[in-house]
Each structure stands twice: as C-alpha cells, then as structure tokens.
Amino acid sequence: MTNQLSPRYPRTSRRLFSHSHSPANTSEFVRGNLRIRRSTLRPGTRVLYVAGEIDLATASLLDLAVQDSEHARAMVVDLSEVGFMGFAGVDVLVRAAERAEGRLHRFAVVVSSRPTERVFGLSDAYARVSCYPRLDTALRAVARRTDL
C-alpha cells in the first residue's frame, strides 16, 4: 500500500484505514496505540480483541471494526487489554449494542480492566450494554441467546 493521502480524509494516510484479511477468519485493525484483532470462533460468533487506548482519535477505528463485524449473529468485544478508554469508546459500544438489539443479534462486552470498569461506571453503559468480567462468560451468554 502506498503512502498516498486519502481523498476522504486528506490529512490521514490510507494505511491507517487499511486492514488485512488474513487467511481463515482473522483480521487486524491498527491505528496509533490501538490494535483490534477480529476472529470468528464459530459460525455466527465474532470476537473483537481490543488492546491499547481508545480515545477520541481512535474511537472511529473501533467503530469501523464493530460495523465491519455486525453481520454476525453474535459479537463479543473483549476490552481486557485496554489501558485507557474515553467516553468516545463507550459511545461506540452503546450505539453498537442498540443496533444489535434492533436486528435481534447478540452483543456483549468484556469489561475487566480498571480503565474500562471506571469509564463504564461513570456512564450509564452498564445499563445499556451486556457486560461480563471474562471472555468465556460473555461467549457462553451470547451462545445461549443464539441457541434459542
């Protein structure tokens, strides 16, 4: 990929918006201090493993990764490796949960790190998003709901 400027985002390199489609069912999204790895564990269930910092500058990448995975009947966003999370990231996840509910899809978030617990606690996100302390618990919850 060349380092040309994107016509839609003139000050941003195209590399920031690119993501590779690796073999099988894994992709990676990277921008600055944020890395999102997408994986399909079983048909219809997508997991986004998020590591780094989610702030105003990187929340759009999280939104892109979530929207790119919304066709799955169940999605889990694992925030256990997030070192900082701002309200822009919470807003992305709340909107994603609302869209999933409107489509009758399942959406869950793993909130286990101190920064994510803090920002979810300061907002009303716990009331609007299905949150779990561990990935295995979240996966079981979305699997139970999709088996109905």
From TrEMBL:
Pfam families: STAS_2. SUPFAM superfamilies: SpoIIaa-like (SSF52091). It comes from the Bacteria. Residues 1-24 are annotated as: Disordered. GO terms for molecular function: anti-sigma factor antagonist activity. Residues 35-142 form the STAS domain. This is Anti-anti-sigma factor. The lineage of its organism: Bacteria, Bacillati, Actinomycetota, Actinomycetes, Mycobacteriales.
